[in-house]
Design a protein that fits this description.
The complex is a heterodimer of chains A (277) and B (604). Chain A has 277 residues and is mainly α. Chain A contains 17 helices and no strands. In chain A, α7 packs antiparallel against α8, α9 crosses α10 and α15 packs parallel to α17. The radius of gyration of chain A is 23 Å and the shape is elongated. In chain B, strands 3-2-1-28 form a 4-stranded antiparallel β-sheet, with no helix packed on it. Chain B has a 4-stranded antiparallel β-sheet with strand order 4-5-6-7, with no helix packed on it. In chain B, α3 packs parallel to α5 and α7 packs parallel to α9. Chain B has 15 helices and 28 strands. Chain B has 604 residues and is an alpha+beta fold. At the A-B interface, α1 and α11 of A face α11, α12 and α14 of B.
């Protein structure tokens, strides 16, 4: 049975080699010293190709802890055989836990899978790779029809502070995509925040308030005068989304040392709520 | 005969029965009694001899080709020969019946009056009250004939002739049975009676000249041209000649045409009994325009159907040419024998060559205000010079692209006609329409069916170009035409396709095969299309595709996809068979796909 499996594997790798070049090209270059195995690697490796999807998923989850080259290779092999989407998602997490450049074509390929959960998992996994084709795939993910896939791409691009993502994220913000708001907040600087504030009324209130609010919460965003400008900009957003964003800023910022921007936020909230009463 | 027409015919026959009972008690004048000698060949011969043998030329006394147009507040005469507006006068009320052009006058029903206007100036020559409801007016050189109905509980129909000169009554007849709108030709007036008879009366005296009875059809339409008179029904018309006394279509000089089903609304002439067609109506905008010789054999007629803004010339049920008037409907049109003359609601005169559909002339009549009807006296007239070259393909495409929802049957007709035109240009334009979100889904379906049926290999580059559109959420683009286009490409299996075109199409289809935005319902068509034009080069992509999704429950649970991918790979060679066997044997392959593979392989 094992021999038969090996023969099948070889045959399929040859068959799909063009589509999944990474399956053949992946030359593990992981040089980390293997940690003591927490799981029975041999058993888990055997289960990676199990017809029982739950068992294969469990094996992939277990092997995520392993940085052994043979594990990495086995994961790539298993992904090349057209496995169940649940297994793919788990295997991609395991693969990205110990990323090597040769994984990128394989992961990029799954970023175009028909299953949206697989695409989202692949894009999240690509966050572990700083590679041009990974960035292209992530930017492509922002164009996906599925909101969860766009959210995955936006999150990674935001975390990577990928400047090329600003324009498409802005376009998504205009369409009301909330993940785009969070990603933009990670990418923005004081200058960008000012430009964003100029678009109040043109961009939808909720994601714009969310974006500017998230920007305020960033530790690395400053100085406080820049935060004050953002607070003032949020104050101009007419809907109640502005109050939510400012309230969150007030709640998550310590009173001391005192910040002018926090006081201004409090004043704005008070004025708005008082006005409502 | 349509259902409604049949019911109406039955009612008429019932009335005939009632009248047969009434005949002995009187109530009907002799000309409209039931005891007349129908279909007398000798009497008809006398009528034909004394009809004045008119030629194909305008009938007004000046011999000038003329139009008289009317609108809600205007009546105007236009001299086609001189290309000038002769006169226009304001109307207090819109005309209530079709306007008629006589010798030196124009007869119009204006409100409760029958009015004669001077043809040279438009001034009112005389006006008399029109008793009862006017059902129609006809005008000869010197006599105006009007048919009307009076009474409510007991209705009485009356035909009345007045001198054109002064409006005095020359003669009148009444009847208990229904009369239709009259027509004049030569020295006679033709009065339809009870849907079955056409009573022919001498214009000068009102004497009954002959009565024609149709045995196998109704007489609900009468058309008078300068050189001939025709009568009949929706189905066909009969020329008034010596054979007209047979009463049977097969033994008469019949005018018939095979029309596409979409043009079923279009009629040979005005329905003389229809209350809605007494005045100008939509019926005047859905009319067959046709001419046949006044004598001798009637060749196969190729009428032109007027349908609001469009003209379709039809021969044996197929469109020979088409003409589309931009934006504005024609309120009426006439075949003069040499040209098709149409008047649009905005006061434009449009003349079209009846043999090619090329535009001959387009001029503004210069009439104030919108128009709703037109009377023609222009037999034999055509503008000077040559008609422009016709572009039926462009006209048909314009019709398909028209936004007016009323014209959907015409769009279907135009699409069917476009099926004749092969080549990438027309395909590209049709594909452009398919991508138009505003086009009705039904029309898109018709376009797709036509493209599929056409199986035009020269269109492959156009299909490839259409397939370049990819779904993109960010850009707000959707590859909506993917499924239909892929289906059209799949019909090219076995056709001679240029290698370059095939390679380009395959690459584009491959991109859609791998695109997660491709709807599952379209994947089957994409796979079939790749198989149809791939020439074997599709197998690598299809192998990778089946391996990638062989365990995907959503994909494998879809029967259409399973069948398509198995069918496509079964056409392959040893490598494909070997792969399919491996997949069928592997427990990790989804059960439904394994079953389909096993079934396919059993037949291999």
């Amino acid at each position: 049975m094992l021999l038969r499996n090996c023969a099948l594997r070889l045959r399929w790798v040859v068959c799909v080699g063009l589509a999944y070049p990474g399956a053949i090209a992946a030359a593990p270059t992981v040089k980390n010293t293997p940690k003591p195995p927490l799981v029975d690697t041999v058993a888990a490796l055997a289960n990676l190709t199990s017809a029982d999807v739950a068992q294969a998923v469990k094996a992939a989850n277990e092997l995520a802890a392993s940085s052994e080259p043979r594990v990495h290779e086995a994961l790539l092999d298993a992904l090349a055989f057209g496995p169940h989407p649940q297994f793919v998602a788990a295997a991609l997490v395991a693969l990205a836990a110990h990323p090597v450049a040769a994984d990128v074509p394989v992961v990029v390929n799954f970023a175009r899978n028909r299953n949206s959960a697989v695409r989202a998992a692949a894009l999240t996994a690509l966050g572990a790779y700083k590679h041009a084709s990974a960035t292209r795939a992530l930017l492509g993910g922002l164009r996906d029809q599925d909101a969860s896939v766009r959210a995955a791409a936006a999150q990674v691009l935001g975390a990577q502070r990928e400047k090329a993502a600003i324009q498409p994220l802005l376009a998504l913000l205009a369409k009301g995509d909330e993940p785009a708001a969070r990603a933009l907040a990670q990418l923005a600087d004081a200058d960008f925040a000012r430009k964003l504030a100029e678009q109040i009324g043109e961009l939808p209130d909720a994601p714009l308030a969310q974006c500017l609010g998230a920007l305020l919460l960033r530790d690395d965003f400053g100085p406080d005068s820049a935060r004050s400008q953002v607070v003032a900009a949020i104050g101009k957003i007419p809907s109640s989304d502005a109050i939510s964003a400012l309230t969150e800023y007030i709640e998550k910022t310590p009173k001391n040392p005192p910040r002018a921007s926090r006081r201004e936020a409090e004043a704005l909230v008070e004025a708005r709520l008082g006005g409502n009463e | 005969m349509s259902g409604t027409a049949f019911v109406r015919w039955c009612n008429r026959m019932l009335q005939v029965g009632i009248l047969a009972g009434l005949a002995s008690c009187g109530g009907a004048t002799q000309a409209f009694g039931l005891a007349a000698d129908d279909n007398s060949p000798a009497a008809l011969q006398r009528v034909l001899q004394r009809s004045g043998a008119p030629a194909r030329a305008p009938r007004n006394s000046s011999g000038t080709p003329l139009l008289v147009v009317s609108g809600p507040t205007v009546l105007a005469a236009y001299d086609l020969g001189a290309q000038t507006l002769r006169w226009q006068i304001p109307l207090k009320t819109a005309v209530a019946a079709h306007v008629q052009i006589g010798g030196d006058y124009v007869a119009a029903v204006e409100g409760p009056q029958l009015v004669a206007h001077d043809l040279a100036t438009g001034s009112v020559r005389w006006a008399v009250p029109s008793e009862g409801s006017v059902l129609g007016v006809a005008a000869s050189a010197n006599v105006v004939v009007m048919v009307s109905r009076t009474g409510t509980a007991k209705q009485l129909w009356r035909v009345e002739a007045r001198a054109a000169k002064d409006g005095r009554v020359l003669w009148r007849h009444s009847a208990d049975g229904q009369m239709g709108a009259p027509a004049v030709w030569g020295n006679y007036v033709f009065v339809p009676f009870l849907s079955q008879w056409l009573n022919v009366l001498a214009l000068d005296s009102g004497a009954a000249a002959v009565r024609l009875r149709a045995a196998d059809t109704q007489i609900s339409m009468v058309r008078s041209t300068a050189d001939a008179l025709f009568f009949g029904s929706r189905k066909s018309m009969v020329r008034l000649d010596s054979r007209a006394t047979s009463g049977r279509l097969s033994e008469s000089s019949a005018v018939m045409a095979k029309l596409p089903a979409q043009l079923s609304r279009v009629t040979w002439a005005q329905d003389v009994y229809s209350p809605t067609e007494i005045a100008y109506s939509a019926a005047d905008r859905t009319r067959l325009l046709w001419r046949v010789p006044a004598q001798g054999e009637i060749p196969e007629v190729a009428p032109t159907a007027l349908y609001f803004r469009f003209l379709f010339n039809i021969k044996q049920g197929d469109i020979q040419w088409a003409f589309s008037n931009p934006r504005v409907e024609f309120v009426g049109a006439e075949h003069t024998g040499a040209a098709i003359v149409a008047v649009a609601g905005n006061g434009e005169l449009v003349v079209v060559d009846p043999t090619t559909g090329g535009q001959w002339q387009r001029v503004a009549l210069g009439v104030s205000g919108p128009l709703n009807g037109v009377a023609f006296d222009a037999d034999g007239w055509a503008p000077a010079g040559q008609a422009a070259g016709a572009d039926t393909q462009a006209a048909l495409l314009a019709i398909v692209a028209d936004r007016d929802a009323r014209f959907e049957p015409m769009k279907e007709l135009a699409i069917a006609a476009l099926g004749r035109y092969t080549g990438p240009e027309v395909t590209a334009q049709l594909l452009q329409l398919l991508a138009d979100a505003r086009l009705a889904p039904r029309i898109k379906d018709v376009i797709v069916e036509m493209l599929v049926k056409r199986q035009d290999p020269t269109s492959l580059p156009a299909y490839t170009a259409a397939l370049q559109v990819r779904t993109d959420y960010l850009a707000g683009v959707e590859a909506a035409a993917l499924g239909p286009v892929a289906r059209a490409v799949s019909m090219l299996a076995g056709k001679e396709v240029a290698a370059e075109a095939s390679a380009a199409a395959l690459a584009t289809l491959h991109a859609h095969l791998d695109d997660p935005a491709t709807p599952l319902a379209d994947l089957e068509k994409v796979i079939d299309a790749m198989s149809a034009i791939g020439k074997g080069k599709q197998f690598a992509a299809l192998r990778a595709h089946v391996v990638a999704y062989r365990a995907d429950p959503e994909m494998c649970g879809n029967g259409a996809w399973r069948d398509a991918i198995v069918r496509a790979l079964m056409q392959g060679g040893a490598a494909e068979t070997e792969l399919l066997r491996s997949l069928a044997d592997d427990a990790r392959t989804h059960g439904a796909l394994r079953e389909a593979l096993a079934q396919g392989l059993r037949g291999k």
